[in-house]
Amino acid sequence: MGKQFLAILVCLICTFTTPGVSADAQDLKKLPRVVISSGGPYTANGGASIQSFDDAIELSREYANKPLALVLTNGSINAAGFSWMRMFLQQGGSDTNLQSGASEFGRLLCDENSFLNSAQVYVDLTSQLAPGRNRIHLEGVGRQGAQFFWELRSIGAPQLSKLNPRVTMAGAQLVLSGMGFSVRPSENEVVLGPAPLQVIESNGRMLRVYVPPNMPEGQFPLYVGIQSMRSNVLQMEVLPSPKVTSVNPVSLLPGQTISIRGSGFSATPQENRVYIGRYPAPVVSSSPQIINAIVPNMPTGNAKITVIAGGATAQGNPEVSISYLNR
Fold first, then answer.
1. 233 Cβ contact list (under 8 Å, min separation 6)
2. Tell me, what's the pLDDT at 21?
3. Pairing state between β 243-248 and 301-309
4. Measured distance CA(241)–CA(283) in Å, rounded
5. CB of 43 within 8 A of CB of 78?
6. First to last CA, the chain
7. In the Cβ-directed half-sphere of 102, how many Cα atoms lie within 13 Å?
8. Fewer C-beta within 10 Å: the chain N or C terminus?
9. How far apart are CA 185 and CA 31, in angstroms?
């Protein structure tokens, strides 16, 4: 009898819905998804009074006619959830077919009873949002440090825009434009030829990635994947990372000019950065093989030279000695 009761209870929890939740939204759990907007953490201050938050759900036009699921999560691995939370969709977006009964804050998406049996609830917002900003209002009570999050998810393959420029360097950061990227950097798989690229930043329409310093030179296909869905493929040329081969002189005084020789530098001085230890040295002139910089005021002693050219950190860190004239 105990096992039968437990099985029934589990089924009830798994099929629990809240006003506005439909079977279509529940099915989104099983499909390749793109997180196209997100909010939180909204953190409780621990007071006895109701705490309010105002935010907006951003919807790109390309997702306006696709399935949309709003995933509400009360709490996390590292923090408890709110004692209760209400969330409202306000005027400014289409809110038809949601829970009947509006309040001064808009249409109710979740209420005090939504998280009694589950910490995560899916709300079907298909055809319920307008492209652009859809204002939301949240209010709740929780112990200090309690957290609440939401994500708007959909389905569809990402799309890369035309590359500009179409050339990058090993060891450099690269910005990719397009649409349909996940706002979670870890959910975007970016591959350039034989190498997966680290995703540093994403906002749904832009990805900032890092090209590994050992990336070989050549022309390679580039694509973005989210789970089993891949974008269009574009071609990108990879140049070798810049290199420092020598510096002159190696014994330096603050205010003196140091010449750095190597390869892969930019002919535009502003596109090169030079550091002596942790101190920036202003670049006064440059060519693809030579950079001239001014030694800054800095402590005496030995220090490594670091050059960043075209966004890529150069190979080679020769050491110089900094001293002052005896007065």
1. 221, 222, 223
2. 42
3. unpaired
4. 19
5. no
6. 94
7. 10
8. C
9. 19
Separation of alpha carbons 93 and 58, rounded Å: 10
- Residue 309: strand pairing partners: 272, 312
Distance CA 25, CA 203 (A): 23
How confident is the model over 263-280, as pLDDT tens digits? 999 999 999 999 999 999
- Look at residue 12 in the predicted model and tell me its pLDDT: 33
Tell me the mean pLDDT in the region 76-92.
89
**Residue-level length of the chain:** 327
Helix (H) or strand (E) holding 7: helix 2-14
Q: Residues of 286-312 as b/e, b for ≥16 C-beta within 10 angstroms?
A: beeeebbbebbebeeeebebbbbbbbb
Tokens of 273: 């950065």
DSSP characters over 216-285? PSEEEEEEEEETTEE---EEEEEEPPPEEEEEE-SEE-TT-EEEEEEES--SSGGGEEEEETTEEE-EEE
What confidence tens digit (pLDDT) does each residue in 239-264 have?
A: 888 999 999 999 999 999 999 999 99
Please say whether the beta carbons of 68 and 89 come within 8 A. Answer: no
DSSP class of 305: E
Sketch out the chain's domains with CATH numbers.
2-154 (2.60.120), 159-239 (2.60.40.10), 243-322 (2.60.40.10)
Rounded CA-CA distance 151/321 in Å is: 53
Q: How far is CA 109 from CA 82, 86, 95, 97, 114, in A?
A: 16, 7, 10, 11, 9
What's the whole-model pTM score? 0.57
The helix (H) or strand (E) run that includes residue 148 is strand 147-154
HEC string for 150-187? EEEEECCCCEECCCCCCEEECCCEEEEEEECCCCCHHH
